[in-house]
């Protein structure tokens, strides 16, 4: 259970950083509706519940394995994914938001991890969730991590419509030059 708590602690530390950094963003110009936001939050909540609920009390599938070195690899992947989200968050600066949002005087960010993928935060969150599933080793955790992929794909497509409407040809060019989620895979 030590590795389980290490993974959970990484997520809690990340969450605290995420909440604090949210206080330093620009004023919102426009945003998705709360109903649209719920289409992301509900599956996200379910995914994290499945990942982090007690693996000894399975909902679908219990513990699949307990391999110490594999759990350590999972913790490392979780940590790396969460650090990469922070790196991307720093590059977004005042334009970051948890919701699909356009900020006053919004600029298209193409520095740091945004040179490699258009949505590095989503890529890194999925990687961190997979790392946690590896660490926990339960079928439920793997199902939870799998739920994140379509959840973020839906959000990405909505976000890309917002960005294309705001930045036009500049965003279409960015889309043609930089992979959406997987580096170097256009």
Describe this structure in words.
By secondary structure, this protein is mainly α. It has a single domain, classed as Four Helix Bundle (Hemerythrin (Met), subunit A). It has 6 helices and 2 strands. It has a two-stranded antiparallel sheet with strand order 1-2. Helix 1 runs antiparallel to helix 4, helix 2 (34-52) packs antiparallel against helix 5 (139-167) and helix 4 (120-136) packs antiparallel against helix 5. The model has no long low-confidence stretch (mean pLDDT 91).
Give a brief description.
The protein has 186 residues and is mainly α. The protein contains six helices and two strands.
Mean pLDDT: 91
Tally of distinct domains: 1
**How helix-rich are the residues, as a percent range?**
55-70%
- CATH architecture title: Up-down Bundle
Please give the oligomerization state of what you see. Answer: single chain
Count of helical segments? 6
Strand content: under 5%
Task: Calculate Rg over CA atoms.
Answer: 17 Å
**Separation, N- and C-terminal Cα atoms:** 39 Å
- At the fold tier of CATH, the topology name is Four Helix Bundle (Hemerythrin (Met), subunit A)
Outline type: elongated
CATH class equals Mainly Alpha
Strand order of the biggest β-sheet: 1-2
What structural class should be given to the helix and strand makeup? Answer: mainly alpha
Give the low-pLDDT segments.
none
Q: SSE order, as H and E?
A: HEHHEHHH
């Amino acid at each position: 259970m030590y590795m389980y708590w290490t993974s959970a602690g990484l997520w809690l530390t990340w969450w605290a950083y995420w909440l604090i950094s949210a206080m330093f963003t620009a004023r919102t110009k426009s945003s998705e509706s709360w109903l649209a936001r719920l289409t992301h939050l509900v599956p996200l909540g379910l995914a994290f519940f499945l990942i982090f609920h007690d693996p000894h009390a399975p909902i679908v599938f219990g513990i699949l394995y307990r391999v110490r070195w594999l759990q350590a690899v999972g913790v490392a992947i979780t940590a790396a994914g969460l650090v990469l989200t922070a790196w991307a968050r720093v590059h977004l600066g005042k334009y970051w938001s948890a919701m699909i949002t356009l900020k006053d005087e919004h600029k298209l960010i193409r520095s740091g991890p945004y040179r490699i993928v258009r949505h590095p935060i989503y890529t890194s969150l999925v990687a961190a969730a997979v790392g946690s599933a590896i660490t926990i080793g339960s079928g439920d955790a793997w199902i939870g991590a799998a739920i994140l992929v379509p959840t973020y794909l839906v959000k990405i497509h909505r976000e890309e419509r917002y960005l294309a409407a705001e930045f036009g040809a500049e965003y279409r060019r960015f889309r043609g030059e930089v992979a959406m989620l997987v580096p170097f895979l256009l």
